[in-house]
Each structure stands twice: as C-alpha cells, then as structure tokens.
C-alpha cells in the first residue's frame, strides 16, 4: 500500500513539474544564442594565426605573443602553440610557411650581429680544439692498429677505445656544444 502511494505521489510530482517526456516538436528559432566575444576572437585567431600576429605587430615565435596568452590564462597550450608558433594540428598553408620563413630571416638579420659579437671568441677556440682532437685521436688509432696490431694487449684495446670515443666526441659533440655556447644557452 505504501508503495502505491509513493508511486502515485511521484507521478503527480512529475506531471506538475513538467518533467514528463513529450513527442511534440518545439520551435526554438525565436531563441537568440549569444556567444562570448572571447570565444569568437579565439576561433578567428586559430583559423588565421598570421592575421592575429600581424594585427599585434608580432613575428613568428615572438615571446610577447606567448606571454600575453599565458597572462590571459584563458588559452590552452595547444592554442598558444598554434597562434604564436604556427604549430597547429593541421597542415601548414603556403602563406604560413612564407610568413614563418620571412620572420626567421628578419630575426636572423636582427640578432646575428649580437650573437657574433658575444660568441666570436668561442668559434676559433672550438675549431682549434676539435681539429687537434680529431688529428690526435686518428693518429693514436692508426698507430695502435698498424704498429701494435701484433701485440694485442688490454692496455692497447683500452687506449684504442678511448681514442675512438674521444674522436666521436670531437666530431659530434663539440660542434653542438660550440653552437650552444655561441647562442648563449
């Protein structure tokens, strides 16, 4: 009996509150949908990031762009990468590639004199160290392989292995380290 009373009370509550399901179609064309201006501008920015950068006077990978988006705290990391660095989740257009190239060239022209002024002493030092290291290690490898080939000892193997690893260091690591030091990283 209590169960039937509760069921009747729930049915009355649903009917009174208007939560019942209907099969009638409702017309919603008279309802105006307004979007936030931020979302509209964000969609425009993501659709054409070049116009966004040019409107603010920024170049490709300009730090002011990413800083302003970070301060706003309304953009995701992917949106910042798309708008400021043109790393969108789509194929780049030719216009975006041209804009990125032109921005890189202008940044290179603007920053290269400063980088050379700061890093010029490191260029000859790394070149001399790398060339001396390459010549010395090749000489050690040739001497051990040619003249001490009959005398295979653990010491000769150790020295040859160290010379090979040092040769790889001079060939691969020193140019990268020179570039990093030159760029101030």
Automatic annotation (TrEMBL):
GO CC term, one of those recorded: plasma membrane
GO molecular function, one term: neuropeptide receptor activity
Chain ranges of the G-protein coupled receptors family 1 profile domain: 136-185
Tree of life domain: Eukaryota
InterPro entries: GPCR_Rhodpsn (IPR000276), GPCR_Rhodpsn_7TM (IPR017452)
Subcellular location: Membrane
Signal peptide residue numbers: 1-18
Main location, first listed in the record: membrane
Keyword Signal: yes
UniProt keyword list: G-protein coupled receptor, Membrane, Receptor, Signal, Transducer, Transmembrane, Transmembrane helix
Membrane topology: Multi-pass membrane protein
Listed transmembrane segments: 122-145, 157-177
Alphabetical list of PANTHER family matching this protein: G-PROTEIN COUPLED RECEPTOR, G-PROTEIN COUPLED RECEPTOR 83
Name this protein carries in UniProt: G-protein coupled receptors family 1 profile domain-containing protein
Higher taxonomy: Eukaryota, Metazoa, Spiralia, Lophotrochozoa, Annelida
